[in-house]
Write a structure and sequence with these properties.
93 residues; 3-stranded antiparallel beta sheet; 4 helices
C-alpha cells in the first residue's frame, strides 16, 4: 500500500483484519499507545501487534513517533483514504 495511488480495494484489504480494526478502534478512542499497551486488550502477542502496526502505518492509517527507545502509535486523522468515508461511522467489529 505504499504506492501513492490508493484504491478502496487496497484500503479494505488492509482493514479486512479484525485485529487491525481493533487497533484502530483502540487508538481512535484511547489516543497514543505503545506496542506493550496494545497486547493485553487485543489478546495477541507482541510480535503480532508489531506486525499489524507496521501494516497500518505503511498504509497511512497510523503515525509513529519515537520517545527514547519506545515507539508510540496514534491514529492519523488525515488518513489517506477519504473516498468512501470508512471512518465516518463508528467502528463495529
Amino acid at each position: 500500500m505504499e504506492n501513492k495511488q490508493k484504491t478502496c480495494a487496497g484500503c479494505f484489504h488492509v482493514l479486512s483484519d479484525k485485529t487491525r480494526m481493533r487497533i484502530i478502534q483502540l487508538l481512535k478512542t484511547g489516543g497514543e499507545k505503545n506496542v506493550g499497551s496494545l497486547t493485553k486488550p487485543l489478546g495477541v502477542s507482541q510480535p503480532t501487534v508489531s506486525h499489524h502496526l507496521h501494516l497500518l502505518e505503511s498504509a497511512g492509517y497510523l503515525a509513529r513517533r519515537k520517545q527514547g527507545k519506545e515507539a508510540l502509535y496514534s491514529f492519523r486523522k488525515d488518513y489517506p483514504c477519504r473516498g468512501c468515508g470508512v471512518f465516518n461511522a463508528p467502528i463495529r467489529i
